[in-house]
UniProtKB/TrEMBL annotation:
Organism field: Marinobacter daepoensis
InterPro entries per UniProt: Anti-sigma_ChrR, Anti_sigma_zinc_sf, ChrR-like_cupin_dom, RmlC-like_jellyroll, RmlC_Cupin_sf
CDD domains, alphabetized: cupin_ChrR
Identification of the protein by name: Cupin domain-containing protein
Pfam families named among the record's database cross-references: Cupin_7 (PF12973)
ChrR-like cupin domain ranges (all copies): 98-190
Signal peptide boundaries: none
């Protein structure tokens, strides 16, 4: 069960279609698994629909309905019914493979990454998948900007608590942490970063010039 959710403002921006594609993907994946947030977004969508009802109405011609029905009942020459396609996760559609079978790149002892920023052309943020081996520790770090993270597999813990699969996390310059993968599975996360993170450990901080 998810315990960490997007805040109300993020859900409002998602409902209004104002989020960047990577941020919207994080919330969409969370909503697929979180009835609580899904219900909140449904309410926001309903409120938006009510507001739209007060917008100026488009005037249709008297025979518009008859023309529409004629197109629907287009006879033998009309297109064949389209069968609904099996539902595919937006993440699976984006990656094409199981997340454990991706071409991961080892970054540090317990950490592997896969940068997928190029799959979101025109976006300013960096979008990256990160894998922390079961029982492994990420280096202590803070952030030079905002980082939005969704847990896709496994779980991690830091001083703020335990974050399980589909939990939603937002961090900024004021947050410093050292995630540890808990449980038997590798912890895999999807992160959207407005700026590179900043390593703060005694030795790892020497790597900061090499981080994007």
């Amino acid at each position: 069960m998810t315990r960490h959710h997007p805040d109300s403002l993020s859900l409002m921006e998602y409902s209004a279609g104002n989020l960047s594609e990577p941020h919207a993907l994080c919330i969409r994946l969370h909503l697929d698994q979180c009835p609580h947030c899904r219900s909140r977004v449904d309410t926001l969508n309903s409120l938006g629909a009510v507001m739209m009802e007060h917008q100026p109405k488009v005037t249709l011609s008297d025979n518009s309905f008859d023309q529409l029905m004629a197109r629907i009942d287009g006879g033998e020459g009309g297109p064949a019914p389209v069968m609904p396609e099996p539902r595919v996760s937006p993440l699976q559609k984006l990656l094409g493979n199981d997340i454990n079978d991706l071409p991961w790149k080892r970054q540090l002892a317990d950490v592997s990454v896969l940068d997928i920023t190029d799959r979101f052309p025109g976006q300013n943020e960096r979008v990256v998948l990160q894998k922390l081996v079961a029982g492994g520790k990420a280096p202590a770090h803070t952030h030079r900007g905002n980082e939005t993270t969704l847990v896709l597999q496994g779980a991690f813990a830091d001083q703020n608590g335990v974050f399980n699969q589909w939990d939603f996390v937002v961090l900024n310059e004021q947050d410093e942490h050292r995630p540890v993968a808990v449980g038997c599975d590798d912890c895999i996360t999807l992160s959207v970063l407005s700026a590179p993170l900043k390593l703060t450990g005694r030795f790892t901080r020497l790597l900061n010039p090499f981080l994007r």
